[in-house]
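Researcher: Let's do a round of design. I'm pasting the structure tokens now; please hold your answer until I've finished.
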């Protein structure tokens, strides 16, 4: 009797195909498809002028969220349990409104022994919820962060694509605008131009610039590039000539370009690159947005910064027919990540952020970038955070000092109204109605 030997390779392939869960790569095409869902007209996507935008990191992962990235940006060691002694964040999100399928159990517990839970940015439902909050409080839109140095990593890349896809859906469903901010930090100079390959992929596959809520400026789709014009004080600064070539390529693709640059760009001082070509490169931009997080620490420091940087920067930008988008932030803390003092730049019950808004309004700013929406690592988050974080194991977190969890969302919305002259200028911090 002549019996055929089974094809082991074929059997194994069929087993993998039908019995094992799909990999991230196999889900990619679904994530990258053009958006075909409902879209609501809300914030005007044609210009940045009159807008308050926020940065959306979207880099938080949890074990079991499907990204295979462990506890990224929650824990020092993402492959170990997120609990006492393995922390990078200084604020704890208020997750009281999240549904059960958005929550992931940590190794932290509350005083009554209840396990503490957090969210994952890989969960589409959660990202859409965050964009709903932007709409609820009048924040116009978001710069969805896309860190260029890890785009080559298949697993990390898939997570970024998933977050962008979710943000796009949230923006469309709730009438917010969005665009991409490419962060060049840590990107080798020879690979900077490859950022454009990613952009072309997103345009070709996701058709993002065809979305009715995709942010435009000066009549063209807007893309933001962060990290241009810094000196060696930041980790692996981006080469100026390579940045020039990247900007030229985006401009040739009929894009408007916003450049995230150094505080000291104008006089080429402080963190600014001292190079005779710097201004020529920055003049290629449609919008300049100097980074100011951590550049001042108290209310007098805000006034000094406004006099030395914001006011003359805005004058320079107008003389050169470039728009200017100042960066403001609610406070800062790097305790659990870096060991610094908890709340090293205090929020002062909103006075710190509101004073920056007032200073920029007086300086003539007509747009603002609030850093950040969800940045609990550095204590700059404006989304809903709790006054009752878990403290098991002696862990320490910031609170909002008894203010409502949505206080800074409300304040961000009021900043937009002040910018557009919808409310009178007042140094008194507005409170929620």
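Researcher: That's everything. Go ahead.
Model: Designed sequence:
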């Amino acid at each position: 009797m002549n019996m055929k030997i089974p094809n082991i390779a074929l059997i194994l392939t069929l087993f993998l195909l039908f019995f094992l869960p799909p990999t991230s790569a196999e889900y990619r095409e679904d994530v990258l498809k053009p958006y075909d869902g409902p879209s609501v007209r809300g914030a005007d996507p044609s210009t940045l002028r009159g807008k308050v935008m926020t940065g959306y990191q979207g880099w938080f992962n949890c074990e079991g969220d499907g990204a295979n990235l462990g506890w990224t940006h929650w824990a020092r060691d993402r492959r170990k349990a997120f609990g006492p002694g393995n922390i990078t964040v200084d604020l704890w999100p208020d997750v009281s409104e999240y549904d059960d399928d958005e929550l992931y159990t940590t190794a932290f517990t509350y005083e009554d022994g209840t396990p503490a839970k957090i969210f994952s940015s890989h969960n589409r439902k959660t990202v859409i919820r965050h964009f709903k909050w932007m709409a609820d409080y009048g924040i116009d839109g978001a710069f969805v962060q896309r860190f260029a140095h890890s785009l080559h990593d298949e697993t990390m890349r898939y997570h970024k694509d998933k977050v962008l896809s979710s943000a796009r859906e949230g923006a469309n469903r709730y009438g917010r605008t969005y665009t991409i901010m490419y962060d060049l930090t840590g990107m080798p100079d020879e690979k900077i131009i490859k950022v454009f390959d990613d952009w072309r992929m997103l345009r070709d596959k996701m058709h993002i610039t065809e979305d009715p809520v995709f942010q435009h400026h000066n009549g063209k789709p807007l893309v933001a590039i962060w990290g241009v014009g810094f000196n060696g004080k930041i980790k692996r600064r981006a080469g100026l000539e390579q940045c020039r070539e990247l900007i030229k390529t985006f401009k040739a693709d009929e894009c408007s370009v916003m450049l995230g640059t150094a505080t000291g760009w104008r006089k080429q001082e402080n963190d600014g690159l001292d190079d005779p070509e710097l201004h020529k490169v920055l003049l290629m931009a449609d919008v300049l947005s100097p980074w100011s997080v951590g550049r001042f620490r108290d209310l007098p420091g805000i006034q000094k910064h406004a006099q030395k940087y914001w006011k003359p920067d805005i004058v320079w930008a107008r003389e050169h027919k470039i728009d200017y988008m100042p960066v403001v932030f609610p406070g800062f803390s790097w305790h659990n990540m870096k060991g610094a003092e908890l709340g090293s730049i205090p929020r002062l019950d909103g006075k710190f952020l509101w004073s920056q808004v007032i200073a920029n309004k007086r300086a003539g700013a007509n747009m603002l970038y609030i850093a950040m929406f969800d940045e609990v690592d550095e204590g700059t988050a404006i989304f809903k955070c709790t006054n009752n974080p878990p403290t098991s194991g002696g862990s320490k977190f910031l609170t909002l000092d008894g203010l409502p969890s949505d206080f800074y969302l409300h304040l961000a919305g009021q900043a937009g109204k002040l910018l557009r002259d919808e409310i009178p200028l007042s140094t008194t911090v507005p409170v929620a109605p």
